[in-house]
Amino acid sequence: MNRTLKKLFSNAASLTGIILLVFFIIIAIFAPVIAPPFSDDPYQIPRMSWDVHPQPPGFPMSDNIREIYDYMGTEIKYDKAICGTAEGGYDIFYGLIWGTRTAFKIGIITVSLSMLIGILIGSISAYFGKWVDEILMRLTDIFLSFPFLVAAMVLTTVLGRGLDKVMIALIVFGWMGYARVIRGSILSAKEETYVMAAKALGVKDAKIIWKHLLPNTIFPVLIQGSMNIGSMVITAAALSFLGVGAPVGYADWGQMVSFARNWIIGAPGNAGQYWYTVFYPGIFIVLFVLAWNLIGDTLRDILDPRLRGEL
Amino acid sequence: MINNRKPLLEVKDLKTYFFTEDGVVKAVDGVDFEVYQGETLGIVGESACGKSVTAFSIMKLLDYPGKTVGGEVIFKGENLLEKTEDEMRRIRGKEIAMIFQEPMTALNPVLTVGFQISEALMIHFKISKEEAMKKSVELLKKVGIPIPEQRVNEYPHQLSGGMRQRAMIAMAMSCDPSLLIADEPTTALDVTIQAQILDLMRSLLKDFNGSLIMITHDLGVIAEIADRIAVMYAGKVVEHADKKTIFHNPLHPYTFGLLTSIPRLDLELKRLDTIPGIVPDPLHFPVGCKFNPRCRFATDRCKEEEPCLVKVEEGHLVRCWNIESVIKEVKKGLLVGV
Amino acid sequence: MLSYIIRRLLLLPVILFGVTFLIFCVFSLLSPMERLATYVHDPATLKNPQSVERLINKYHLDDPFPLGYINWLKRIVRLDLGWSQTANQPVWDAICQRFPATLELVLYSIVPVVLVGIWLGIISAVHHNDMLDQTIRVTAIVGWSLPTFIFGLLVLFIFYGILGWLPPGRLSSWAQDIVYTGNNFHNYTRLITLDALLNGNIPIFLDALRHLIAPIITLSYISWAFLLRITRSSMLDTLRKDYVKTARSKGVDEHTVIHLHAKRNAMIPVMTVAGMMIIGMLGGVMITETVFTYPGLGFWAATAAQQLDYGSVISFALLFATIMVVGNLVVDISYALIDPRVRLE
Fold first, then answer.
1. Residues of chain C with pLDDT under 70
2. What residues in C contact A149, CB-CB < 8 Å?
3. B88-142 per-position pLDDT tens digit
4. Cβ–Cβ under 8 Å, residues A142 and C328
């Protein structure tokens, strides 16, 4: 374990990943300080203007918005859009900061829950074998027949907009990979002598799975899970981009990019006028996912004994 | 050099190290032996003593992170370690060939047996595919595989273990190499098949006066087939002599230990003599003679100074400070009838 | 092998049943009124309680679950998929009309994905750990981290917004006039590049190609990064095998060792993944087509999802799931053909 950690820190790629990750963790933890929320729901992005057109970085809060906030008794914590505003006047900076929390939420929750389901199904399937295995594996095949994005999109359309619906969709169609991996490992481990010894001693099935098989087979699944955090966040962002994810004004990076398509070309003669609508949320998404992928890729290389230069 | 014959292969102080992330593993750290035309050299030793690495070093087929860092490998008068990769390619398969331990993994599962045998022929003799295939059929027949015309178009997984090994032998011998290196060829086989394979190898070699290096940990195999023997321990050759000398007058404590630990049917022994201890960790070799922690004859000198390989008599090399102690033990008659 | 193929073929209807059943379950999450809306053209009908009741009976929307499923399935098989609000035509017609555009895009994308991905993966493995390998790997990881929509927007921004070379959409308006009205232009396959060549019309061919380049790059980028990583890993694995050493010990030259002995074995697992991936690219089609407003199935589905056009969305899922199931079968069977160990069982 220590060896693995040491290697992770010494490799340039994974070190970069770790630094990036730490950066994001700090932002997520200190979000209320860096970007104080205007209302009870911190994930609601405050607006700096009513204007449909995005405003450039440094844009000060427009007067009519200020009046409205004063009228509603909302405390105005800050009044400049450091990174500009998205379509409809939503402050990009705020969205970036709180979007970090959203990203972690999405990544960790969806991966943990889908991993749980996957491990459950995969281990039961592998351990009991025969027709249990057959049925569960056909079930897995059925779920796998849907391209991930398509399935998630259908489910979110039917369930409605909202981050929780997105997460449900990602979990419902995200467990199959883990199920297969753990099934494979357990199928081979099942034949090992220590399992047969436990059975011969009369140990109950559930206990065998829990105490003997899982600890020995769970590591690759955990690795896979950590690497999937990035792709879950991307898929959630993609759904928001398509307009079926988080609702408008919610602090989610993908949601902020969704309107950008219309503005990316800029006004005639001034291409890239609205670069910040895509650049800021985009760079956050990319760096976040890159961090997980760099760490995960190096982790995979470390744990692959063939590539360690062994005899 | 014995009796003024020049050896076919002469390995002098060969050193091959593996530069791993955990440290330098000195897999081969001083290996010396000679192989003569028409003779079989048996290299014997426990697992991980560097036998296979020696073979790969000779063929220059080392995998990363291994590197040969010293010594000479003189084959037909030329040092192989100085040759370029191109020159080695012309030697491999044609002058020196190799057989591996596990025929299922050593044969390519997606290529036919016939193709794999023909390949060396096509490369080294520039003959056509049809001609090479014909020769392959002949070779398969020669190694005792029935219905060779059919087998030649089959895939490795369609053959049994013993047949696969025979096919590998056919492949290795296809170009009539002067030297064949066999790395534990019988270890993965049943005892009865083992005997057949050994017989096969012996007769093939006799046919064209080829030389064989037989690498194994099995003294029984060595006794059957070897003319000269090199005993390896922890990356070094500790004793090198002809078969009779090794079995009747060993001088190294390790050799002695190996011989006395063989179970005997003709003697009434209450217990089997074993060599105490285990093979040392290649990353943490003991100081001085590598064998000293397990050696019953070890003296203080052994714990500090590493002995060098010394010619005790014509054709007999030993690496030990205490040969006299071993001679005394031998005289006690424990090696009767070996 | 025969038993293997038969088994897979027998599983096909089972899986298709499962897939349709799953979709039906999702469909049933909607209220009967919402489900009804997927079948009617004119929203006004929904306001009339009598017609609503008649229609609910007609479409068995009130029936118990199993019966509802059977009836729904019967309609599906007859290709009665409802009405698409967003396309303003029956769903099946909408699908047929947009299918060729997506097909053209995907077919062109397969080439860079497979060729470049596998080729670079092999190079990367052979040059294991030196500069070339590291560069390729880092590029792949970055590619893997760039979400398709961000990458697409970037491409759109640079190559259209700034340079003006690669416009969005499928054809420029002058070309659209010719192709869609059939004026001096026969639509043989509805694949515009192919049709243009068959008609001998080079300007249209070039125009169509120009519109395809950016979506192709976008669609294939993530896929080839993934394929590259898989190929590299499989190749590294294979190069360590004993039979590679055997080949070298025979004096085989390095090029043959890599491309004959190693590659054939390494490609077996890669082929299965590649097959899966190509089919999976269908999912990425939604985003790519949306970014470039390319009038294919994906753009239609995304628009439908936004506008809560349930009928279209459900049918789209059904279509792609079916393609994936059949595609999987093809991949599995071809795997059996490639690997002699399976073939000759």
1. 1, 45, 342-345
2. 283-284, 286-287
3. 999 998 999 999 888 888 999 889 999 999 999 999 998 998 999 999 999 999 8
4. no
Q: Which chains touch C (3 or more CB pairs under 8 A)?
A: A, B
Residue contact B25–A310, C-beta within 8 A: no
Domains of chain B: 9-95+177-331 (3.40.50.300), 96-176 (no CATH)
**CA neighbor of A76 nearest in space, from A32, A36, A34:** A36
How far is residue A24's CA from residue A108's CA, in Å, rounded to a whole number?
14
- Residues A238-253 pLDDT 10s: 888 888 888 888 888 8
Helix, strand, or coil here: C166?
coil
- Contacts by residues C13-16 (CB-CB < 8 Å, ≥ 24 positions apart): C14/A138, C15/A138, C15/A141, C15/A142, C15/A145, C15/C325, C16/C322, C16/C325
Q: What is the pLDDT of residues C190-207, one digit of tens each?
A: 888 888 888 888 888 888
| Mean pLDDT across A108-114 | 93
Nearest residue on chain B to C267, judged by CA atoms? Answer: B110
* Domain membership of residue A136 as a residue range: 2-310
Cis omega (within 30 of 0) for bond into B65: yes
Distance from CA of C241 to the nearest CA of B (A): 7
Which residues have CB under 8 Å from C60's CB, separation 6+?
A: C67, C68, C71, C72
C280 contacts on A by Cβ (under 8 Å): 147-148
> Which of helix, strand or coil describes residue C225?
helix
Residue keyed to tokens 């056909």:
A138
User: C250 touching B, CB under 8 A?
Assistant: yes
pLDDT at res. A161: 81
Instruction: Give the tens place of pLDDT for each residue, C22-41.
Output: 888 888 888 777 787 777 77
Looking at per-residue pLDDT, the higher value among A84 and C105 belongs to: C105
Nearest CA in chain A to B50: A311
In chain C, count H helices and then E strands: 16, 2
**Do B34 and B6 meet the contact criterion of CB atoms below 8 Å apart?**
no
* Dist. CA B100–CA B185, nearest whole Å: 6
Give chain B positions within 8 Å (CB) of C247: 108, 119
C246 to chain B, any CB pair closer than 8 A? The answer is: yes
DSSP letters, A214-226, are HHHHHHHHHHHHH
Backbone angles phi, psi at C197, to 5 degrees: -65, -40
Pairing of strands A59-60, C89-90: unpaired
Indicate the pTM of the whole model.
Answer: 0.76
How many residue pairs bridge chain B and chain C with CB atoms within 8 Å of each other?
A: 78
Q: Please, what is the average pLDDT of chain A? A: 81
Cβ of A147 within 8 Å of Cβ of C146? The answer is no
Q: How far apart are the first and last CA of chain B?
A: 27
pLDDT at A172: 92
* pLDDT given at position A311: 30
pLDDT at position C204: 84
What is the C-alpha separation between C58 and C52, in angstroms, rounded? 10
Residues of chain B with pLDDT under 70: 1-4, 264-267, 269-271, 333-338
Task: Provide the 3-class DSSP secondary structure of residue B85.
Answer: helix
Domain with residue A52: its CATH number is 1.10.3720.10
Query: Which of C241, C252, C340 is opposite residue B119, by nearest beta carbon?
Result: C252
* Shortest Cα–Cα distance, C292 to chain A (Å): 9
Chain B residues touching C252 at Cβ < 8 A: 89, 93, 119-120, 123
Rounded to a whole number of angstroms, the distance from the CA of C11 to the nearest CA of chain B is 28
Q: Which two tokens stand for residue C144?
A: 């893997």
Pairwise CB contact (< 8 Å): A309 & B25: no
Q: How many domains, in total, are found in chain A?
A: 1
Q: Is the pLDDT of residue A219 over 80?
A: no
